[in-house]
Amino acid sequence: MKFVAGQYIQRNSFVHSLHPITKLLALLIFTIFVVVKGVWMTHIAGVLLLISGTFAARIEIKKVGQIIKLFWVFLLLTFLIHLLFTPGAGGVDWFIFHISPAGVNNGLLYSLRVFLLVWAASLFGWTTSPVALGDSVETLFAFVRVFGVSPRDISTVFVLSMRFIPTLFDDARQILWAQRARGVRFSGSIKEKVKNIIPLVIPLFVVAFRRADKLALALLIRGYDSALPRTKIIQIKFSCRDFVFLAFLLIFLAVIQAIAVRMG
After folding, report:
1. Which residue of 20, 80, 148, 215 has the lowest C-beta tally within 10 Å?
2. Whole-prediction pTM
């Protein structure tokens, strides 16, 4: 399955046209909104908000389903942890495990919360090009110059890391196919699975380090120096739509938060 979480998708949409810092602030505000008040009402409002944002970005809704396929194990693990370790009235206790209606509620709620955060981060990546994201990170971390750190180095590392996540995902898939062709089976008991995962992890690390070494050499040959002044092909500036979008988001989330607090 192709890696889709956060990989940039070029579209001509309202969300794509927003300033990258605007979208980064929106992601931060949404994260705080979902995490601080963990009730069903805020999470359902978050689902509606992300559905609207996905359609506004002209992104196929099937991408969201692909995220679920990619992270379903983590979502299931989140649900099981809360299901088995949340004591409550009307539940069943056995050894260290506690199964109760409160555990079911918390398991579903926290799984939905994790999914919303992954979805929001993916939507940000779908609508923000790596170059624009790097420029935004460099602007946001401009204050680190006081400590003798180059914000351009931070943005470069950040962008390259995001760029190579899909590549590493494809490398892992190719290595998996190659090991299966050689007779390695990734099934059986937990001990056997851990033992058989070594032929997958070690070649993946070797490929990753080789790729990083080639990239460092390429940057060195091209004369990359973060201390030198650099011009930008595309100048991204704040516009009225950025302020209107942030104002709408803050008002909408504040209203939902106030209703959730009033309802207890």
Report:
1. 148
2. 0.74
